[in-house]
Specification:
about 350 residues, mainly alpha, 3-stranded parallel sheet, two-stranded parallel sheet, 5 strands, globular, binds tryptophan
């Protein structure tokens, strides 16, 4: 696994260089499940990167994976609301919807979903059963019985990526097995149905450059389900309160020592991401003033960094007609791409009438 990770990292760096050189040659697809609001970990780990790439001029598709929510969540009552919240947060973070940035829920794109049937025939049930991320999710959710949608969602993710011939997929490490499956499906489709001229590209993972952001408990990745997150929607006072309660350690002297002092390092990292100063310099400046001073610095820095986003998200909250329009436009644009791809797929499979 770590061997493949090294390989993915290397490919990812090469891809990054090529994107810089020829942004308009690439098509980026990434997305989120609409299960709740986004937090600071999402912001520094993926949102800012999406905004950066879209501004470079890379054609960007953002899929809101509403069907995927059904695979491991019983609750579906908030999908619609969460979908709109995601759009608000994307826009507030700086994505500009339009021809070059298409935001859509995959449930609205029949031709994307229809790719699922041929794709399912290109993988074996053994391959589906082996997926380490799916296995972990099943264990984490404590599922007694696993529905078939859970085992097959990586194939559906291939539909998400390939319907628009996405070739750049910014993801975290946990999504690499899914990307491997997409590559496998693209390769097998091309080999079987269109050996002369491949229908699909084999997409690459663009691994996040920013380090994993831990939650305020300092022990695990920031996540809503672990109750250790600062949401983008939090007020400045709420943010201050959460940071005040963050775990640190007994050593009063603040130093940058990620290996031995993960909690302190995580707070320093968040300051650094907010201000651009290096974590070492921040630590030197705070030194023996202690964790209280570090927390005050972080509160100030993070609230300042997020202020424009939060102002904009509050404004967009009141623009529900506009948010719905963004989604409808995104659906129209995504659908046009999906119709074109399905036409090619039908032709390749000899199913035209
Ligand atoms: N599985 C991803 C997650 O849980 C969400 C997702 C759905 C996705 N389709 C995608 C990510 C396509 C990248 C590309 O976060």
């Amino acid at each position: 696994m770590s061997d493949t990770y090294e390989k993915s990292l290397c490919l990812s760096q090469r891809l990054e260089a090529d994107i810089q050189a020829r942004p308009e040659q690439h098509c980026l697809l990434t997305g989120d499940r609409p299960t709740g609001r986004l937090h600071v970990g999402h912001y520094f780990g993926s949102l800012l990167n999406r905004v950066r790439l879209a501004r470079l001029g890379v054609k960007t598709y953002i899929v809101i994976a509403d069907y995927q929510v059904l695979t491991d969540h019983d609750a579906f009552s908030e999908i619609s609301q969460n979908t709109k919240q995601l759009v608000i947060e994307y826009l507030a973070a700086g994505l500009v919807p339009g021809d070059n940035c298409v935001i859509f829920p995959h449930s609205y794109i029949p031709e994307l979903n229809q790719l699922m049937l041929p794709f399912l025939t290109l993988v074996t049930s053994a391959e589906l059963n082996r997926n380490p991320t799916v296995k972990e999710e099943i264990a984490a959710a404590g599922l007694q019985s696993v529905n078939a949608g859970m085992y097959t969602y990586p194939v559906h993710q291939a539909c998400d990526i390939l319907f628009c011939k996405g070739d750049v997929v910014p993801v975290g490490k946990d999504q690499l097995p899914h990307l491997e499956m997409t590559r496998l499906i693209a390769r097998r489709f091309n080999e079987k149905f269109s050996p002369q001229s491949p229908v699909f590209p084999e997409p690459f993972a663009l691994l996040s450059q920013s380090p994993v952001i831990l939650g305020l408990d300092g022990s695990q990745k920031m996540s809503k389900s672990r109750n250790n997150a600062i949401f983008l929607s939090a007020t400045e006072d709420e943010t201050a309160g959460l940071i005040k309660k963050a775990k640190t350690d007994a050593d009063r002297n603040i130093t940058w020592d990620p290996a031995n002092r993960p909690e302190v390092a995580n707070l320093l990292l968040l300051v650094s991401l907010s201000t651009g100063e290096t974590p070492e310099r921040i630590a030197d400046r705070i030194a023996d003033k202690g964790a209280g001073a570090l927390k005050a610095v972080l509160t100030e820095a993070l609230n300042e960094k997020l202020r424009p986003l939060r102002t904009e998200r509050a404004r967009l909250e009141k623009e529900s007609a506009y948010i719905r329009q963004v989604l409808r436009d995104g659906v129209d644009r995504a659908r046009a791409a999906a119709v074109a791809t399905l036409t090619e797929v039908r032709r390749a499979m000899n199913m035209e009438i």
